User: Fold this.
Amino acid sequence: MAIDGLIILDPAGRPIIQSSYTTFPAAYPLLHIEALNNALAKASREGSVDPVVYVEELSCSTACCHVEVGGMRFVATISGDADPLIAFAFLDAFIEILQDYFGVVSVATLKDNFDIVYQLLEETLDSSGHPLTTSPNALSDIVLSPSLISKLLASVSPATPGVPSARQGGSFGSHGAGGAFTSPIPWRKAGVRHNHNEILFDVVEEIRGIVGKNGTTLVSNVFGKIESNAKLSGTPDLTLTFTNPNVMTECAFHPCVRLQKWTRDNALSFVPPEGRFVLADYQYRPPQSALISNVPIPLSLKANMDMGEFGGTFALTLTSRLIKVMENLELNFYLGEDATGAQCTLSSAGSSVGSVGSADGSWSFNSRTKTLRWEILNMRSSGSWILRGSWTSNIKAPRPAHAFQIRFEIPSYSFSSLKVDQLRLSTETYKMYKGVRMRSKGSIEWRW
Assistant:
C-alpha cells in the first residue's frame, strides 16, 4: 500500500492545502483532520501526541502520520498495510523541497504560492500515492521557483512587440518538463557552469543520551551526517577519503555515492548534485578498546529537588566537561499540568546575576506549556552555572516530570574525531576550493 494523500494544516488545525483524494469518499480527509485535532486537544502537554494517530471512525485500518513545521502540521494519511516510515520519509523530503523553494516555510508563504505548492505536490506524489520526483535539481526544471517566475514575468510582456509569450514557447517553455531529464545523471543538471568552483562539507554530529538519577549514563549514541554544498562546473567526479573511516558505521549514502568503492576502499566516490545535499548519514562507533560503549556526556547536572504541598523548590547546577565552549544551551523542565508559576535566581561562578538573567543566562516560565526554560548562551569550560527557584501548583501533590530535557551546540567540535584526508577531482581540469567544518549538538534526558 502507498500514501493516500497529503494535508497541510495551519496552527488552528484548519486545512490550507491537501491532495485530491479522488478515489476516497469526500469525508475521508476530514475524518483524519478531526482525529488529529482531537488528539492534539487532549494532549496533556506539547509534544506528547504520538506521531501516528489512528482513525477509529472508519471501518478500514487507517492512520495519519504528522510532523510539525513552523506551527503547521504536515499530515500524510495511510491505510491498509502501508509502512508509516514511508510516509515520514516522504514528509521529510517534501518539507526539504519547500524549504529549498521558499526558504522559510510558513502559512503566509504557502498561501502566497498556492500554485507552486500544488505543482510540487503533483510532481512528487502520483495519483496512486507513490513518491515520484523528489530531487530538487530535477524539480527546479519542472516547477519554476517564485524568484524565477517573477523575473520571467518582468522580462516577458505581452505588450512588447516581437517578444514571444509563454504560450508561444518563449522563456517559459525553455524551463518546462522537456528539459528536466536531459541529463544522463538524475541528480545533476547538464551544462552547469560557475565562475568560482567550490565544494563545502559540514560534518554535523548529535549525541543523544539518557542519564539516570544517580548520574550514570544509561545510553548514549552519536549520529552524524555530512552535509555538502557543491558549486562545481561540468560533471566533476570526486573521491573523498578519511584518515579514520572506521569510526563510521550503519552508513546511509546519497544515491550519487558508489557503494562498491566504499565497501572496498572506505572512500566516497561520487558525482555531486548541484547545490545543497546530504552526502552521508552514519553512527559513531567507539573504539573497541573502550571499556563501555556509551559516549561520554559532555556536561554534568546536579539536581536537588524538594517536593512540597502546592509546589516545590529546586537547585540545579550545570558544569561543562569540555575544553570547548558550549553555545545555546537550553534546559527544559515540565512542572506539571497544574503549575501556576515559578520564581528563580541565576548565579554563575559564585556571583549572582539576578532573578531574570544576564549575558550568562536567562530563565522563563511558559504558562501555556507549563515548562520552565533555562538558557545559557555561552557555557565556558570552567565554572558552574546554578539555577535556584521554586514553583507553585494548584494541587496539593504536584506532579512534575522526573527528567530534564537538555539541548546544546558545540561549534568546531566532533565527538567521533572524524577527519577528512583528501578530496580528489577527476574528469575536470579546473581548480576548486574545498572547505570542511565540524560542529556538534546534543539532546540529553537527565532524570532525577
Remarks:
- The longest helix spans residues 84-102.
- Residues 155 and 171 are 9 Å apart (CA to CA).
- The radius of gyration is 26 Å.
